[in-house]
What does this fold into?
Amino acid sequence: MGSLQSNISLEAVTGELNYLLDNGIRPINYTYAQPDGQPQRTGILQPTRVRIENARQLPVAAKLDVQGFERIAHASQVPDLENEELVRQWYYPETDALIRAHTGAVKTVIFDHTIRIDQPGREAVGLREPVRYVHNDQTERSAIRRVRDHLPAEEAEQRLLKRFAIINVWRPIGGPVYSTPLALCDATTIDPADFLPSDLVYRDKVGETFSVRANPEHRWYYYPQLQPDEALLLKIYDSRTNGVARAGAHTAFDDPNTSPDAPPRRSIELRALVFFDD
It folds into this structure.
């Protein structure tokens, strides 16, 4: 790992996280701008102040199959992670190898990636903002559909007979994360009832994600000033029903320790189907 700035706080911080108010109405999130000023996202957010611990200070490092997230030391060899061609040509296979080596998976299928920047004007160059509400990217139904969408039909049905997971790989681009870091919820503290299915509407299909309702039992962590030679593995879904974390939750948040002149966060998240032999 690269050297960290000396002013990293070793203490927990208090941050405001946007949960979804559980009012029984299924929220809808559109991936494209709506006409006539209609909201791009429905549902009532419930801003909640929570304690967010410094994960670097855990006596035992968080693990993907326990807490649902894990930090690993790994420097990408791709010179420009904002170059679409280089990302697909070089970063995809590099990350494929990283996931397989770290998890023991027999196969991965990387199905997309997103670059985010916390800076005005990002839309003009096709970049997206950090997501500031608590969520998980897939439900069980959408995870299974992902397998069928990205594998030949016969292979998909065979893979679905065994364990598979969806794992996100998240890393900074160009420098440490000083603003809008990622808050990660310990999967062992999430009640399955806290996950609220939500529609994710594309122009050609409707997907499904999880919003999350507030629960005082949740324990939150973050990695202050995450470096480009660090990556976070996030458990989005796991078909295994015993012995491992099945799903976590995450969100960007405003770190109260962030300096007003801090550079904007730039990050890339890559999403992969991960298949096992057990």
